[in-house]
Design a protein that fits this description.
mainly alpha
Length: 101
Amino acid sequence: MDILRLYLLFVAGIILSLLVPLAAKWLKEARKEDVRGVGNTLAKVWTLAKPYVKVAVGSAIVGMILVVIFLVSKGDAKAIAWHNAVIYGFGWDSLLQKLNA
């Protein structure tokens, strides 16, 4: 696996880490009686997703740092499985979210 693919898989894990709390909020919102029915759903989705989009941009930058940390710690980009790279990105971003909470 080359460095670019490793980075993209790390970012995929980071994005997944961002989508999990968004999906949880979405599910809670869908259960409320007063939000069901006609309305500007796209505006509601954007309002809910906007903070996560901002965090995603920051997390993509952090993904570059994660690649550097991985390579400096003698990680082998050619030997890592794609699913491990996604989990590394997920775990890294989850840690940052918890530290910033």
